[in-house]
Amino acid sequence: MTDDKDVLRDVWFGRIPTCFTLYQDEITEREAEPYYLLLPRVSYLTLVTDKVKKHFEKVMRQEDISEIWFEYEGTPLKWHYPIGLLFDLLASSSALPWNITVHFKSFPEKDLLHCPSKDVIEAHFMSCVKEADALKHKSQVINEMQKKDHKQLWMGLQNDRFDQFWAINRKLMEYPAEENGFRYIPFRIYQTTTERPFIRQLFRPVATDDQLHTLGDLLKEVCPSAVAPEDGEKKNQVRIHGIEPVLETPLQWLREHLSHPDNFLHIRIIPQPAD
Amino acid sequence: MAEEPESALQLPPSIAAEGEGPTEVSPETATPEPPSSAAVSPGTEEPAGDTKKKIDILLKAVGDTPIMKTKKWAVERTRTIQGLIDFIKKFLKLVASEQLFIYVNQSFAPSPDQEVGTLYECFGSDGKLVLHYCKSQAWG
């Protein structure tokens, strides 16, 4: 695993140039300038947008401000999804920078979870890590860690400290020498089509046996429409972290190198854009 | 009303959000509401038949959280964790401001928008999904 460490760094330091604009119906005391920011792909919106919030709050009155939320082309952005995933699902074929609209009113209760504090993000993040470990190691590794190790994972993510994070995360990526890989691969597949609700989530373990399963195997089993080319034409695009991996890539490798900090492999499938 | 702890009672199709009902909250007398969009499955690419089935859930109380009289429930796969939380809170007559946490495997709390069906597929055993519920954060 160490020889591909560059991949881990590339994933960690991936950034998306973003332009935040205040929603036109928000009440301001003076003109609100847009705010530009490089967003880390692997983090969460509400964790990295304190400056955005402060920037717009400066031109608003206190009484007009309630919980901040973000939207792209009419779709509320779920802060509990990794930023890179949101971008790949919604905006990957648009020109950069990613244009996000900022709201302080009319929080869409049906679409978004509330995020009153950083503790909520931490709780969500740690839950994902624990859920992933339940699949990989029957929770043994995460449970054997001390509380301070859990804290270090979170602080590493929050403070953008790659080495601090991976000092602990590497333990979650290990497996006993006699096995070929993890018990199950934690993954989530996201699809967008015009007929369905915005995001559908498939979530099933795939057993790794003596044969190394590939990405193609996983998709064929779980989401056949994504790979079966009926007339030879590729119907859908499969992306992880904004890149399209070769379908023959072993799942175990993808798992170790392209997982998000929450220890999940977030795979997004969208229809092939018509050129 | 006679208690039948062994039978899996049916969760109402959706949760009515209005105020207090009869003193004895019973699923059979819950006001029927138009099914939420989550309960109606589009059924296009889903594995045939799976999304219409219900799964069995066993609810276990943690700490000093009140114990539900009926612990075993049959729930639609597309029911979200949030939907389940709302239902338990109503069943236990907790006020809306009181928090309730649900845990899988006594280790993690799934995010409220996760569907119980997908959790069952990964973490179910012996034909059911065991969920622990608690008014405070039991497992961090």
The secondary structure category of chain A is alpha+beta
Q: What order do the helices and strands of chain B follow?
A: EEEHEHE
Beta-strand fraction estimate of chain A: 15-25%
Helix content of chain A: 25-40%
Largest sheet: spatial strand order of chain A: 2-1-5-3-4
Strand composition percent of chain B:
15-25%
GO molecular function (chain A): Atg8-family ligase activity
Keywords (chain A): Acetylation, Apoptosis, Autophagy, Cytoplasm, Immunity, Isopeptide bond, Membrane, Ubl conjugation
InterPro entries (chain A): Atg5, ATG5_HBR, Atg5_HR, ATG5_UblA, Atg5_UblA_dom_sf, ATG5_UblB
Protein name (chain A): Autophagy protein 5
Structure description:
The complex is a heterodimer of chains A (275) and B (140). Chain A has helices at residues 5-12, 45-48, 50-57, 83-90, 118-137, 140-144, 147-158, 162-172, 215-222, 251-257, and strands at residues 15-22, 35-40, 69-72, 75-76, 98-103, 187-191, 200-202, 236-239, 265-271. In chain A, strand 6 and strand 7 (200-202) form a beta hairpin. By secondary structure, chain A is α+β, with helices and mostly antiparallel strands. The relative contact order of chain A is 0.14. The model of chain A is unreliable at 194-205 (pLDDT under 50). Chain B is of the alpha/beta class and 140 residues long. Chain B has a domain at 52-134: Ubiquitin-like (UB roll), CATH 3.10.20.90. Chain B is built from two helices and five strands. Chain B has helices at residues 81-91, 116-123, and strands spanning 9-10, 54-61, 72-76, 101-104, 128-134. Chain B is globular and about 30 Å long. Chain B: One of its GO terms (biological process) is autophagosome maturation. Chain B: One of its GO terms (cellular component) is Atg12-Atg5-Atg16 complex. Chain B: Ubiquitin-like protein involved in autophagic vesicle formation.
